[in-house]
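Record passed on underneath.
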Amino acid sequence: MRGIYVKLPNNTWIKVKGKLGGIIAGKSGKRAGYTLIAESINKIHKNKSKPDIVFHISSTKVTKYIYRLLDKKLDSKLKIIIEYVRPEIYKVEVYGKEFKEAYKIAEEMGIVRKVKV
């Protein structure tokens, strides 16, 4: 099943459905604000095959990374599993032919992290 799945620190799984956006007017001017739309799920069905790529990202940018994946509509082309590892790191597993695009977004954002196992 394609889509973006996230395992939160409390071991809850969610499936990202999209994002809602709007314009927020403040003292410093107008800016766009977004909120993720997601549903909790019991568990995720991991593929029997190995992921096409596995990498780690900074936890401070997980939400922005998901926004970018949604903007590029990669949720309809790939299965992306984002799992909490520890407070500063999330693991990303990508399944699908266009896996390089998901990695490239994280790399351009400067959030790919080397993790000692």
Notes: The mean pLDDT is 91. The two ends are 29 Å apart (CA to CA). The CA atoms of residues 3 and 73 lie 10 Å apart. The chain has two helices and seven strands.
